Amino acid sequence: MQNPPPNQQGDANAKTALGLDANLGAALGYPIGIIALILFIMEKENRYARFHALQSLLYHVGAVVVFIALSIILTILSIVLAMINNTLGTLVGGLLWLLFMVVFLVYFVGLLFCALKAYQGNWLKLPVIGNMAEKIINK
Hints:
By secondary structure, the protein is mostly helical. The protein has helices spanning 22-29, 33-42, 47-84, 86-119, 129-137. Helix 2 packs antiparallel against helix 3 (47-84). The radius of gyration is 19 Å and the shape is elongated.
């Protein structure tokens, strides 16, 4: 469990601009990205809620980029392998799409973990996007 990042104020139990408790708003922002977007735009006072809302948005954007890239790569590999050998292409293609599903499962579990930590009032900072969110919030 991390302490609040430096220069960040905000109480997880305070109310947000949406009228939700900050920890509830931050937690709902992870699985429901539109809440994070609305909270990030409307919230001006509570840095806890803004930080988690922005981190959630960056997490979603990063996941979309990874899923698009992975889909393109897997589709191309499946087509090329199917052209070389239909049986091999089908087998490897199925394994590659299984890999895609595992990546999606990791993404989903990450969302639930972040939502749980935000609800508990923890300043969970994800490795790359947490630092980006912190820099933007501190401006």
